[in-house]
Amino acid sequence: MRPTEIDYNIHRGVCYLKTIAMNLLFWGGRFNDLYLGGDVVILGDVSLNHHMRVYDHSKLVGKVSFGEGCCISENVEIRTLFEHIEIGEKCTVNRNTVVIGKVLVGDDVLIGPNCLIAGSNHRFGEDRPIRMQGVMAKGIEIGDNVWIGGNSTILDGVRIGGGSVIGGGSVVTKDIPPNSVAVGNPCRVIRKRLTASDGVEATGN
């Protein structure tokens, strides 16, 4: 039997009530307009914020912090076991995206569905099993007002300048300058997004 709109609205209502209870019980009612969906997992030093939405089946694990007004869609995993993930204000992380390792995200960032933002790497320089060599993290930095298209992969050590657009399905292995439109595997800049010749002032990073 397929769920109906009524079923969905009942589910949302129950989740709102649970969120109110959790907000009072665990956080002393400090958050305004917080919503946590069904089967949401929050473990470790996670800092939520006001006007925030975390939808069904998402996981927030480790030292993770959010600015106000963030939206985390269904089945998102944001996890770090040894570093810090910081996500700025009014950011959206779409469904089925994974953010791991050491990651800094600015304000007003849009991350499409099915993305991987991997701010860490396995070490592999020794003659023994890679799984035994540990991990390292250079970190990923994403500036303000960036849009990352769906199915994109951002690899450790990359910096994406503010105002940039990353085309869907891209694999970003090198830094992207501010206000760039970049696509492909490997991801390359194809043009500037805002230039003086367009009569629009570039925003910078």
Walk me through what this model shows.
The protein has 205 residues and is mainly beta. Helix content is 11%, strand content 36%. It has one domain: UDP N-Acetylglucosamine Acyltransferase, domain 1. It is built from one helix and 22 strands. The longest helix has 23 residues, at 5-27. The model is unreliable at 197-205 (pLDDT under 50).
- The number of helical segments is 1
CATH class designation: Mainly Beta
Instruction: Report the sheet-strand fraction.
Output: 35-45%
Order of helices and strands: HEEEEEEEEEEEEEEEEEEEEEE
Unreliable segments (pLDDT under 50, ≥5 consecutive)? 197-205
**Cα-atom radius of gyration:** 19 Å
- Per CATH, the architecture is 3 Solenoid
Overall geometry: globular
The fourth-level CATH homologous superfamily is Hexapeptide repeat proteins
How far apart are the termini? Answer: 50 Å
Q: State the secondary-structure class.
A: mainly beta
- Helix content bin: 10-25%
Question: Can you summarize the main beta sheet?
Answer: 11 strands, parallel
The average pLDDT score comes to 91
The CATH topology is given as: UDP N-Acetylglucosamine Acyltransferase, domain 1
Into how many domains do the coordinates divide? 1
Please give the number of β-strands.
22
